[in-house]
Design a protein that fits this description.
Growth Hormone, Chain: A, single chain, 81% helix, mainly alpha
């Protein structure tokens, strides 16, 4: 039986699914790098490969996610939650066969990538439908806060659970938690998204290529923190490792809440430029950090700098497009982020293996500066 609750209450239940989904993403980001390096004795290249495989799957899923959404948004969200439970099951069996552990983890991350990508897209569209098209910016901002707040809580929880109970306990939580939104969303009415007016894909891709390329370079720093900062703290012997990803997420949310109104203005290029500048500064400071307090401050700077970059560049990208092209444009634009996360994780891992963590973070800072150069070519 479907509910007759207010749209806001329905949206709150949809956001609950987003929060739980990305809390589980945070659990993985906290636990998996430690499991791979300590229990499997693998190097940072393997860490980057395993972490990046989720984002590669998210990128590839964009080929067919549009067709999936036509089956209904609630169905996609529920199927994605079941996919997350399957991911937890795969994660739970990986420690019991060391020879197949890495391939199992990569396959598990692929399952997670498809589930997370589909859930996030369907949940955003579902919430917008409940509140109306005029609420698009509000829904995107609210979802961003849910995502990074949940990751900020999940990452330290994943580290602590892994340290005291091991990876099977993390996997058990991943299997159990999605049951909550599955039950609550069964009473929220479903909807199939409206089809867009026909668009010419190559023309839309050309319009988003420049801001998308800047987003790709910005993503290098983001994935460097998500995949390697906990290992950096552990190798350096710094005990406040659980605070690193938390401060990243908390800083992200605080900047989005306090300065999010700037996204409604006309200075989007300047806003993106300032964000990239602070990202380069934070990554450089992290590369030369002499102690954990310096490193935590650097991580907070990076988290804050990442907060407004994606929506600012996204507004620039869609602003170049006609109304009926904007859905396609956002799909292409988001694909640049997925590609960055998928491809640069292993690359930064190689740099870290060759020259150390400082070199990896410094290389990510150089990428942010290159993004700043490209941004200067965007029309204001």
């Amino acid at each position: 039986m479907l509910s007759h609750a207010s749209p806001r209450f329905d949206v709150a239940r949809i956001q609950c699914a987003v929060i739980i989904c990305f809390f589980l993403v945070g659990l993985s980001l906290g636990a998996l790098p430690l499991f791979i390096t300590k229990d499997l004795a693998a190097d940072d290249t393997i860490v980057g490969l395993v972490i990046g495989s989720q984002f590669l799957a998210s990128l590839l899923s964009r080929i067919f996610v549009g067709r999936l959404l036509q089956a209904g948004l609630r169905r996609c969200v529920l199927a994605s939650l079941v996919g997350l439970m399957s991911y937890g099951l795969l994660l739970g069996i990986s420690p019991y066969n060391s020879e197949l552990a890495v391939p199992t983890l990569i396959f598990a991350r692929v399952v997670q990538g498809v589930a997370v990508g589909t859930l996030a897209t369907a949940a955003i569209m579902w919430a917008i439908d409940k509140l109306g098209e005029s609420s698009t910016a509000r829904v995107l901002s609210m979802t961003g806060i849910s995502i990074y707040g949940a990751v900020a809580c999940g990452a330290p929880a994943g580290i602590l659970i892994f340290q005291y109970l091991g990876l099977p306990a993390v996997a058990g939580l991943i299997i159990a938690l999605p049951i909550i939104p599955v039950v609550t969303l069964l009473r929220v009415s479903d909807i199939a998204p409206k089809t867009e007016q026909k668009t010419i894909g190559t023309r839309v891709f050309g319009k988003v290529l420049l801001p998308g390329s800047v987003l790709f370079l910005h993503g290098v720093g983001f994935v460097s923190i998500e995949a390697f900062v906990s290992l950096y703290f552990s190798q350096s012997g710094w005990p406040l490792v659980t605070w690193a990803l938390s401060l990243f997420g908390v800083s992200f949310v605080l900047i989005r809440v306090s300065l999010g109104h700037l996204l409604q203005g006309s200075g989007l290029v300047r806003l993106a430029a300032a964000s990239l500048s602070f990202q380069a500064l934070g990554l450089t400071l992290l590369a030369v950090a002499p102690n954990q307090y310096w490193a935590l401050l650097s991580t907070a700077i990076i988290g804050g700098s990442c907060s407004l970059t994606f929506p600012a560049l996204g507004a620039i990208a869609t602003g170049c497009c006609s109304t009926h092209e904007r859905g396609t444009a956002m799909g292409y634009y988001s694909g640049f982020q997925d590609a960055s996360y998928a491809l640069t994780g292993p690359a930064i891992g190689l740099a870290i293996n060759a020259r150390g963590y400082g070199t990896g973070f410094f290389a990510a800072g150089i990428c942010a500066l290159l993004g700043l150069v490209l941004l200067s070519r965007v029309k204001r």
